């Protein structure tokens, strides 16, 4: 599960994907376990939920380059694109509304575009979190 955003700009609506992962890590009681993985330029933590083992990943890059971190992690940890979930902001949704998207285009989102390009696939599932148009 990868939270897209701008690593140095936490707390902004554009980095809501990372905020969602922080909250998920707290709920799964692994928030103290985040560690920097220099091989993929990301913060990672392992968690278990409903019998599934999860890796939570927050790229340490700007949004337009998030895909490089995710593709590196996919190679290192042997993840296929269809097993990757992207959590990202969506300006076309009202603040706080969420939607699941199964594959498809980036819909103009540069972070998703970066992931599609770096993974050479558009099969990632996306959790789109509404931020509205501020």
UniProtKB/TrEMBL annotation:
Q: What is this protein called?
A: peptidyl-tRNA hydrolase
- As recorded in UniProt, its EC number(s) are 3.1.1.29
What Gene Ontology molecular-function terms does this entry list? Answer: peptidyl-tRNA hydrolase activity; tRNA binding
Q: Which domain of life is it from?
A: Eukaryota
Q: What are the entry keywords?
A: Hydrolase, RNA-binding, tRNA-binding
> Which gene produces this protein?
Ptrh1
- EC top class named in words: hydrolase
Supply the source organism for this entry. Answer: Jacana jacana (Wattled jacana)
Family listed:
Belongs to the PTH family.
């Amino acid at each position: 599960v990868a939270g897209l955003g701008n690593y140095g700009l936490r707390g902004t609506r554009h980095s809501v994907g990372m905020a969602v992962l922080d909250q998920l890590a707290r709920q799964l009681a692994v928030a103290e376990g985040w560690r920097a993985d220099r091989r993929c330029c990301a913060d990672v933590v392992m968690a278990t939920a409903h019998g599934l083992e999860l890796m939570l990943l927050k790229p340490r890059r700007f949004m337009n380059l998030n895909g490089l971190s995710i593709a590196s992690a996919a190679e290192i940890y042997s993840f296929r694109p269809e097993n990757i979930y992207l959590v990202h902001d969506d300006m076309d949704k009202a603040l706080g509304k969420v939607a699941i998207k199964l594959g498809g285009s980036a819909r103009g989102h540069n972070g998703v575009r970066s992931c599609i390009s770096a993974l050479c696939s558009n099969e990632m599932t996306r959790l789109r979190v509404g931020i509205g148009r501020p």
